[in-house]
Write a structure and sequence with these properties.
345 residues, alpha/beta, eight-stranded parallel sheet, two-stranded antiparallel sheet, globular
Length: 345
């Protein structure tokens, strides 16, 4: 399996994350990609290739242009106003404020375009996000050209980024733009299966009213886990997308055999949908020792996860999402990919 990777991910190297009332070193950090890349090389998974530069329109097909303009300009504007730290929002539009406008002031725009306050914007964030998008698009292109599978080693991740909001360490929704590229290249229907511990709220938002993309997510119960306000089982799609959104929230301490039952439910839905291609939002923060999650999957479980995904027999694009800076992130990611390859042949 080929891996698409860009060293430009290092440009996203924030120093602050708001958690527990403190500014701490972010859990989403460059070492995450380093661990995964080292494991790919050690296990000789396959060729590691550089991404192609894709037209901006590929991302604009998913994200609001005003939001992308904000993302591109925010750091320069933030520093020109004399701010010394990283950009962190301090106010959000409230549900008691109907008829929202986008403010001119930078603090108002930060609040308008942000999902959550834990994710600071630092120098190089936008450049890294665009490089990550190119990684996903280039890996999707490999699938379009006949590869049975490919791995997009994206960083920063993407599945929390909605049409016009960032947060949860995500700025551009890599899985969504990859799925759209597969559709633009000729697929009639694409399924996205999100196996990250956290619900892919951004991906759900983007495709919730569309009939050409099925979104399935297995994740921590949003009553207890980020993003809290989306990811419930009764969210099943709207309009043309009614019935094409499947959320499978699971409780604290879920072991693999129960997680796997949810995976089988998602696979059944994907079979019924008759997808032409499959995008996996691959988060490995379901691991028992992940620092910010509460499932109990063990490293060997990720091998079986890969085999089970391979049983669908679909062209499959893996897009890296979460899994935080413990060394096992590399082992667990490669276990999924090798498990998939071993069954897919």
């Amino acid at each position: 399996m080929k891996t698409v990777y860009s060293p430009d991910h290092i440009l996203r190297n924030a120093k602050t994350e708001l958690t527990g009332g403190q500014l701490v070193t972010p859990f989403e950090c460059p070492q995450r990609a380093d661990y995964v890349l080292a494991a790919i090389k050690f296990q000789q998974l396959g060729a590691i290739v550089s991404p192609t530069q894709w037209p901006r329109s590929c991302v604009e097909s998913i994200h609001d242009t005003g939001y992308l303009t904000f993302l591109d300009s925010i750091w320069q504007r933030w520093t020109l106003t004399g701010n010394q730290g990283e950009a962190i929002p301090n106010i959000w539009p409230s549900r008691s404020m109907p008829g929202l406008h986008i403010p001119n002031h930078i603090e108002g725009q930060l609040g308008y375009y942000s999902l959550a306050g834990e994710t600071s914007i630092s120098e190089g964030t936008a450049q890294a996000a665009w490089a990550s998008a190119n990684v996903a698009l280039s890996a999707a292109d490999l699938i379009q050209k006949g590869e049975g599978s490919a791995f997009a080693l994206c960083r920063p991740p993407g599945h929390h980024a909605s049409k016009n909001q960032y947060g949860g360490y995500c700025f551009i929704n890599n899985a969504a733009i990859a799925a759209q590229k597969l559709l633009s290249d000729g697929a009639n229907r694409v399924a996205i299966l999100d196996v990250d511990f956290h619900h892919g709220n951004g991906t759900q938002d983007i495709f919730y009213q569309r009939s050409d993309v099925l979104f399935c997510s297995i994740h921590g119960d949003p009553m207890e886990a980020f993003p809290y306000f989306l990811g419930f089982a009764n969210e099943t799609g709207k309009g043309a997308g009614l019935g094409l959104n499947l959320n499978l929230p699971l409780p604290r301490g879920t072991p693999y055999h129960l997680w796997h039952q949810a995976l089988i439910r998602a696979i059944s839905k994907i079979h019924t949908f008759e997808a032409d291609a499959l995008v996996i939002s691959l988060g490995v923060d379901t691991f028992e020792n992940d620092p910010i999650s509460f499932f109990k999957l063990k490293s060997d479980d990720f091998i079986d996860m890969g085999k089970t995904i391979a049983s669908m027999g679909l062209p499959t694009l893996f897009v890296m999402e979460g899994g935080y800076a413990v060394e096992e992130i590399g082992t667990n990611t490669v276990n999924v990919l090798k498990g998939f390859e071993n069954l897919a042949g």
